[in-house]
Amino acid sequence: MSNQIILLVEDNPDDEWLTMRALDKSQVAHQAEVVVVRDGVEALNYLFSADSPIQTRKEKLALVLLDLKLPKIDGLEIIERIREDKRTASLPTVVLTTSNEHRDILTSYRLGANSYIRKPVDFESFIEIVQQLSNYWLKLNQMPKNRTLS
Fold first, then answer.
1. Which of 6, 84, 85, 88 has the lowest CB atom count within 10 Å?
2. Cα separations in angstroms, 51 against 5, 31, 48, 57
3. What is the rounded distance in angstroms from the CA atom of residue 149 to the CA atom of residue 117?
4. Residue 102 belongs to a domain with what CATH number?
């Protein structure tokens, strides 16, 4: 079993399937467990509720892949909440979305997103992007052992 977790926040079943297929095809399944939540409330509950896995396994949460256009609470607010909480402030958060709106890109970075990636239409390109993301964030990137900010 992997010692890393990717939180995929995606409300579109087709995009979820494509992302999971790309993660599987890029061999991420051998590197990390993927937890899928389908709206902003589920994402925040996963991250911050008292019985959340992050409370006991927070050191395993390696990456958040976040869609912006979500029901209930949008991705921009999720980024803001992640950065405000000292337990998750340094958690790598990558926006993976179909939005190419300049305002979304600018606001995502202003709120503290680590990266903003527009989902390509071509599946092979999407797989390549997911491979690069997983290689960088799960293998190359160095995170402190205790990510809680003092």
1. 84
2. 17, 25, 8, 11
3. 26
4. 3.40.50.2300
Domain assignment present for residue 150? The answer is: no
**Does residue 94 belong to any structural domain of this protein?**
yes
Length of the chain: 150
3-state SS assignment for residue 39: coil
Print the domain residue range for 112.
5-135
Lowest mean pLDDT among 97-101, 109-113, 138-142: 138-142
β-pair type (5-9, 61-66): parallel
pTM for the complete prediction? 0.90
Number of domains in the chain: 1
> Where does the pLDDT of residue 40 fall: very low under 50, low under 70, confident under 90, or very high at 90 and above?
very high
Residue 75 near residue 109 (C-beta atoms within 8 A) = no
- Record the tokens describing residue 150, joined without a space: 């003092």
Q: Which residues pair with 7 in a beta bridge?
A: 35, 64
Q: Which helix (H) or strand (E) holds 77?
A: helix 75-84
Question: Does a structural domain hold residue 148?
Answer: no
Q: Which helix (H) or strand (E) holds 63?
A: strand 61-66
Residue for token pair 């467990």? 33
